[in-house]
Amino acid sequence: MTSSSGAALLVALLLIPLAGAIVVALLRDNDKLAKQTALGFALVELAVAVVAWIDYDPSAERFQQHFSLDWIPAFGVHIAFGVDGIALVMVAVTALLVPLVIGFGWAEKLPAQRTAGGFLSLILLQQAITIGVFAATDVFLFYVLFEIMLIPMYFLIGNYGGARRQYAAVKFFLYSFLGGLIMLASAIGAYSLASDELGKGTFDWATLVEVVSNAPLSNQIWIFLGFFLAFAVKAPLVPLHTWLPDAAAEAPIGVAVLLVGILDKVGTFGFLRYLLPMTPDAAVELAPLVLVMGVAGVLYGALLATMQRDMKRFIAYVSIAHFGFIAIGVFAFTAQAEVGAVTYMVNHSISTGMLILVIGMVIARGGSSLISDYGGLAKITPALAGVFLLAGLSTLSLPGTNSFISEFLVLIGAYGPEPVYTILATIGMVLAALYVLWLYQRIFHGPVRGSALVNVAGGPGTALAPEVGARKAIFDLNGREKLVLAPLVVLVIGLGFYPAPVIDVVTPSVDATLQSVGISDGGN
Amino acid sequence: MSALTSVLLLAQDPPDKETLAPINYGAIMPLLIIIGAACIGVLLEAFLPRHQRWSAQVFLTLLAVVGAGAAMALYLSDAPAEGELTLSDSLAIDRPALFLWGTLLALALGAVLMIADRSVEPGGALVAQAAVRPGTKQDREQRLGAQPHRRDAARFQMQTEVFPLTLFALGGMMTFCAANDLLTMFVALEVLSLPLYLMCGLARRRRLLSQEAAVKYFLLGAFASAFFLYGLALLYGYAGSVRLADIANAAAGSDRSDTLLFAGMALLIVGLLFKGSVGPFHAWTPDVYQGAPTPITAFMAACTKVAAFGAILRVLQVGLESTQWEWRGVLWGVAIVSMVIGAVLGLTQTDIKRMIAYSSIAHAGFMMVGAIVLNEDGLSSTLFYLLTYGFTTLAAFGVVSLVRDADGEATHLSQWAGLAKRSPLVAGVFAFLLLAMAGIPLTSGFIGKFVVFSAALSDGMAPLVVVALIASAVAAFFYLRVIVLMYFSEPAPDGPTVTVPGAFTTAAITLGVVVTLLLGLVPAFALDWADAGTFALR
C-alpha cells in the first residue's frame, strides 16, 4: 500500500476545488474578489496536482494514493479513490486547464444578472466532480459522479451560454443522462454477477473486473453495450455526437474548453478503465463496431469541420474527428496504439483547449463567432495570429508539436492489426491540414475584411483603408492573455520534442489494461 | 357501510371465546392513539368555541402523530423480528407493516403541518365553511381569507374538521397496510378513502374545481371499492376464507374452479391499483391532484401511495404468492403502461400540480416493478422507494403552495419562469426535489431507483428494467423543463410572488428536503430498516 501522504494528496485534489466552489459561491456580491479567490484555489490545486504527479511512482503498483470508506454496506459500495497513470495525467490536465479558463474569463462580460461568483463556483464544482470521476475506484461511485457531473455543466451552459443555450443545455443533459442510465443497468448487471459469484455483491472496481472478465461472452456483451453507450455519448462517437456541436457552440468559451477538453475525455477514459478490463472478450468481439464508429467519426468530423461557418461548431467537429481517432487507438489492442491513444487524450486537451482559447480571444475582439466576419486579422494582431497558428498546427499534429507523437503511435500501432481502418483514418489527417489551414487563412490572411473588423471604429478614411478603424479598436494579445497562453505554448512545443514524461507515466497502466484483454505488450 | 360490514363479518366463523388470543395492545397502540385522537377531535369540534378549535385541533393532531410514533418506537424495542398477529389474526404487525407505519406517521406529520399553516394563505388553504356555494357573496368574502385587519376575521378561518378527518384517514391507511385479511383491508380502505373524498372538496379558492375533484374522486373511488369488494367475495367463494394466508394455501393445492380465483384476483388487484394510482387505473389522479387544496394533495399523494403499495405488496406476496405465474405477466404490462403513461403524458402538462400527478403515475410504475419481484429484495426495495417518494413529493407540494399571485397559487408552468431570480432559495429547493424525482445521484430518488432496478434485474426482469430506464429518461425531460423555466428564462413582469412561509410549512418542506438529501447521501440505515424482515406468513 502507498504512503498516507499519497492519499492525503488525492483527498486534497478532491477537496480544494470543492471548498473553492463553496467559498466563491459566498462571494457573489464581489466579482473581483470572487475571481481572485477562484484563481487562488485553482492555482493551489495545480500545485497539489504537480506534487501528486511527482509522488506517483510508475514503476510501483498501478493504483496509488488510494483511500476507501464504507458508504452503503448493504451493496458493498465504497467511497474509494485512487489514481493510476492514466487517471493521473487526466487529473493533471484538469488541474492545468481550470486556472487558464479562469484567467481567460477575467475580463469576459457575463450575461445580465449573472455574477462571476456563481460562474466560477460552478467551474470549480465541475473540476472537483471531474477529478472524482477520474479517480473513483468504485463502480457505483463512478456512476454517481458521472451523472452529477452533468449538473454544473447543465447550469454553466444554460445560465451563461449563447442564444440557444436552453435547447443546448437540455439536449446535452438528456443525451448524457440516458446514456448514464443504461450504464447503470450494466453496472447493476455486473453487480449481480459478482453477488452470484462471490455470495456478496460489491462495486469494487478490481473485484468486478475479476468477476466480469471471467463471465461468459453473452453476459459480457450486455454489460459492454451498456457501458459503451454511455461512454460513446460522452466521448461523442458518430452517430451519438449530435449534442456536442450545440453544446460547444452555445457554451461560453471557458466552459467549452472544459467540456471538450476534459468532460468528453471521461468517455475514452471509460473505454480504457471499464470496457477493456471488465469485458475483454466482448471488447475484442465488438471491436469492429467501435472501429467503424471511430473511422466514421474521423471522416465525418473532418468533413463537417471543413464546412463549418461558425468557429465554435468547427471546434466541436474537430473534436469529434479526434475522438474517433482515440477510439481507434484504444480498440486496436496494441501497446503502441494504446499509449498513443492515452497521450492523445492529454494532448488533445492541451491543443484543443488552446485552440478554443485563441478562438475565444478572436471572438472577444470581433464580437462574432462566424468565420466570414473576419479576414486579414494577422495585420492587426500578429502575435494572436502566431499563437493561433501554433494551436492549429498542434491540432493537425505537425511533427514538433505535442500531438504528433500520439497520432504517430496510434497509426503505427493500429496499422498492424487493422490496416484498412488505419488507412481510412489517415485520410482524416490530410483533411485536418485542410480544415485547420483554411480556417487560419480565412481569418488571418488577405486584406482586412469582414463585418467584425471593418467599420468597427468608424471615423474618416475607414472606407478606403479598413484596417485604420480596426487598428484603433482591436489590439493584439495583452499581458493577461499572454500569461494564459504561455503554459500551453510551452507544453505544445515541449511535449512535441520530449514526450517521455507523459509516456512514462501512462505506459505501465496501459500495459496492465492490455494484459487484462489478454495481450501482453505486443509491439514494443 | 357498517351494515354491510356486519353482514360480511357473519360470513366468517364466529370466533370461539375460549381460544381467542389476548389482544396485544402494545403492538396496536399507535393505531389506537390515532383513531382515539380522531374521535376526540370530533368531540372538540362539537364542544369548543370556534376561535379555540384551530389551536386545540392542531395540538391534538400533532400530539397524536408524535405519540403514535413514540408508541411504535417503544413496541419496536422488543418486537419479535418475524412479526406477530393480533386482534383475532386480523392485523399483522410485522417489520414491513412497522416500516410503513413509521413512513406514514412521518409523512403525516409533514402533511398536518402544511394543512395547519395559516400564513401562506390567510386563514389556511382550506375553506371557511364547506357549505359555502361557489360564486356566492359568502364565497367571495371567504376567498379573501382571514385578513388580520378585519374585525370578523375569525369567521373566515379554515374549517377545522379537517384535522380529525386527516387522523381517520391516517388510521385507515395504517390499518390498510397491516391488514391480514381482505375484509379488514376493505374496511380500512373505506376508512381511509371517505375522509379523503371530503377533504378534496375543501379548497378555499377555485371551489368548483375542488368540488369537481371531490366528486370525481368519490365516484371513481366507489367503483374501485366495488371492484375490490367483488374480488373479495369471489376469493371468499374460492377459498372459503378471507385470510390472505388461507387464500394462498387454497390456491397452492386445490382442484377448485380457477375461474373464481382468477376473476377474484383480477378485481381485487384493480381496486388496489386504483388507490395506488397505477396506470391504466390512474385517470382520476391528475384532476384530483390539481383540484384538491395543495396540502391535502400532498397528504394524498404521499400517504395514500404508501398505504396502497403497502397493501399491494402484502396481497401479492402473502395472499397471491402461490399463484404468481398467473398474475405476474399481467402486472408486467401494468407496470409498463403506468411508466409510459406517466412519463409521456407528463411531457404535455402545463400545470405544475398535474405534472407532479403524472410524475406520481410514472413513479407508481417503478414501484410496481419492485412489487412484482417476489423475493426479499423486491419487498425491501419497494418499501425504500415508497419512503423516498413520499418525502420528495410532500416537499414538492409544499413548495408549490408557496408560489402565488393574486388568484392564489400560480400553478401554470409559464408563471414559474425566472423564479430563480426572484427567490433563489425556493427555486433551488424545488430544483433539488425535481432532480430527486428524476433520480439523479446524491438524492434519495436515485437510491430508490437503484434498489428497485437491481432487485428487478436479480429476478430476471431485464426487459422491464430497460423500459423503466427509458421512462426515467423521458420523465427527466419534463422535470428539466421546469428547471429550465425557473433558471434560464426571464421572469414575466406580472409573475407570481413567493410567499414567505410560516413556521409550519417551512418545517414540512425542510423535513422533506432533509430526508431526500439524507437518504441520498447515507441510505444505509434506512435500507437496513426496510430489509429488517418479511411479512408474517400466517
List the helices and strands and how they pair.
The complex is a heterodimer of chains A (524) and B (538).
Chain A lengths: L3 H23 L4 H25 L8 E9 L4 E7 L1 H20 L11 H20 L3 H10 L1 H11 L4 H34 L6 H9 L3 H18 L8 H8 L2 H11 L1 H14 L1 H28 L3 H20 L4 H32 L15 H14 L6 H14 L3 H26 L21 H8 L5 H19 L2 H18 L7
Antiparallel strand pairs in A: 1-2
Helix pairs in contact in A: 1-2, 1-4, 2-3, 2-4, 3-4, 3-11, 3-15, 3-20, 3-21, 4-5, 4-6, 5-7, 6-7, 7-8, 7-9, 7-10, 9-12, 9-13, 10-11, 10-14, 11-15, 12-14, 12-21, 13-14, 13-18, 14-15, 14-17, 14-18, 15-16, 15-17, 15-20, 15-21, 16-18, 17-20
Chain B lengths: L1 H10 L13 H23 L2 H27 L7 E3 L4 E3 L1 H22 L20 H7 L18 H15 L5 H19 L6 H33 L4 H9 L5 H18 L8 H8 L2 H26 L4 H24 L4 H20 L4 H25 L2 E3 L2 E2 L9 H4 L1 H15 L5 H15 L3 H27 L8 E2 L4 H19 L2 H7 L8
Antiparallel strand pairs in B: 1-2, 3-4, 3-5
Helix pairs in contact in B: 2-3, 2-6, 3-4, 4-6, 4-12, 4-15, 4-20, 6-7, 6-12, 7-8, 7-12, 8-9, 8-10, 8-11, 10-12, 11-12, 11-14, 12-14, 12-15, 13-14, 13-19, 14-15, 14-18, 14-19, 15-17, 15-18, 15-20, 17-19, 18-20
> What's the alpha carbon Rg of chain B, rounded to whole Å?
22 Å
Q: Enumerate the strands of the largest sheet of chain A in spatial order, edge to edge or round the barrel.
A: 1-2
Number of strands of chain A: 2
**Structurally, how many domains make up the residues of chain B?**
1
- Give the H and E element order of chain A: HHEEHHHHHHHHHHHHHHHHHHH
How widely separated are the two ends of chain A? 29 Å
